[in-house]
Amino acid sequence: MRSRQVPVYSGILFLSCVWIHGVDSTPAVITVRRGYTPNATVTAGRDAVLVCNGEPSEIGVWYKDGYSYYIAYIYEWSGNCNFRSNQILPRLELGSSDCREHALRISNISKIHEGRWRCTIKMEERAVNVHVVASPAETTTSRTQDSVNPQTPSVTSMTTILGGTVGGALALLAVVITVCCLLRSKKDKRNNGSARGPVNGDHRHQDPEQRKDAVMVDNVLYDSYGGD
């Protein structure tokens, strides 16, 4: 029992720390470069900043595989860094005031942001594959729930158990019915045998009057007097 309580208490302590200190607020900075497509892994709930370096006056357009149109674009105008989004994906904003980075910030990243992101500057494309993994809090919560009730049977196992029990009961019922039918058939045969007429010379099962007549017929004295 104590071994089950240890992971439960550990999970509660970890969740308390996360609630007090929060998830890592430092954004994950991912820089896309020319020539190759790197893979980047970000924890769910964390912020991520995608950086695509170029001249500030040049327009940096961000795309994501699976969407026909651009996701957002960034450019400098009158000394200010301008950000435009088509609102296809939520929680997107300008990632840096330095327009040379054409930085796209993804707040509270989740699975909907996972995939291949592309940045285009002056028709030159760069890309990065973003993978979103579960946060430690979610993993710990799942493990804590499993440790609280590790022996809880699944729906599939319960269905299998119930199916086996019902099948066994039906088989037993079939055996009982078969035995009862055999006993009933044997009893009927006995009754039919006892209801048949007596064999010649056997007067055990005859009516008393019939037995009397039979006796008188066989009696020599009765025949000689003829009942006179």
At a glance:
By secondary structure, this protein is α+β, with helices and mostly antiparallel strands. Among the domains are: 24-134, Immunoglobulins (Immunoglobulin-like, Sandwich), CATH 2.60.40; 156-190. It has helices spanning 2-21, 136-148, 155-195, 208-218, 220-225, and strands at residues 28-31, 39-43, 48-51, 60-64, 72-77, 80-85, 92-94, 104-106, 115-121, 124-133.
Q: What does this 3D model show about the protein?
A:
The chain is α+β, with helices and mostly antiparallel strands and 228 residues long. Among the domains are: 24-134, Immunoglobulin-like; 156-190. It has 5 helices and 10 strands, in the order αββββββββββαααα. The protein has a 6-stranded mixed sheet, with no helix packed on it. Strands 1-3-8-7 form a 4-stranded mixed sheet, with no helix packed on it. Strand 5 and strand 6 (80-85) form a beta hairpin. Helix 1 (2-21) packs antiparallel against helix 2 (136-148). It starts with a helix and ends with a helix. Residues 1-23, 194-209 and 214-228 have low confidence and may be disordered.
Salient structural properties:
single chain, 228 residues, alpha+beta, 5 helices, 23% strand, rod-shaped, disordered C terminus
SSE topology sketch:
Elements: H1 2-21, E1 28-31, E2 39-43, E3 48-51, E4 60-64, E5 72-77, E6 80-85, E7 92-94, E8 104-106, E9 115-121, E10 124-133, H2 136-148, H3 155-195, H4 208-218, H5 220-225
Parallel strand pairs: 1-3, 2-10
Antiparallel strand pairs: 3-8, 4-5, 4-9, 5-6, 7-8, 9-10
Helix pairs in contact: 1-2
